[in-house]
Amino acid sequence: MSNSLTPAPFPIRTECPPGACVCDRGRVLADPEADQRPLALTRLQEQKLVERIERIDSYADLRHVQALILKNLGAELRIEPGPNEVRTVRGIIVVLEDRPGLCKKTRQNVPAAVRRCLNARPEIAYAVLDAHDLFGARG
To answer: Which pTM value belongs to this model?
Structure first.
């Protein structure tokens, strides 16, 4: 029995410098049962994802991108009002779920892109608040 890493059936992200990331890339590659979808997000694809997020033009489009991230990476992108009063976009919590194999930089860059999008298009931020019943639209 060899203890070699299982090759992925697709191009994977290059390894981060030692100590710079806590993505457990090696553990994911070593476990044939592990979900390897997060490893498929290369740096180039991450840049394309960030550009796509910044081009979001409606709440429906935002929900579509959230579904694509869940489908393709297996990680949930949560966007919800914070526990305190929401006065600015900073009051909205944006988190990309931590998954083994998902780079720390990605978990920072994706929420930052969502915040930039919400800043540029306040109507989407209002729709996020409305979807969580903060404006009392649902009765």
So the answer is: 0.83
**48/86 Cα distance (integer angstroms):** 30
Residue 104: closest CA among 63, 59, 58, 46: 46
Query: Which neighbouring-strand residues pair with 77?
Result: 96
- Of 99, 92, 75, give the one whose Cα is nearest residue 23: 99
Q: Contact at 8 Å (CB) between 69 and 96?
A: yes
Q: Tell me: the pLDDT tens digits for 33-91?
A: 888 888 888 889 999 999 999 999 999 999 999 999 999 999 999 998 887 777 777 88
Range 129-138, long-range pairs (CB < 8 A, 24+ positions): 129/81, 129/86, 129/92, 131/59, 132/80, 132/81, 134/81, 134/86
| pLDDT confidence of residue 134 | 57
Angle at 94 between CA 89 and CA 99, to 5 degrees: 170
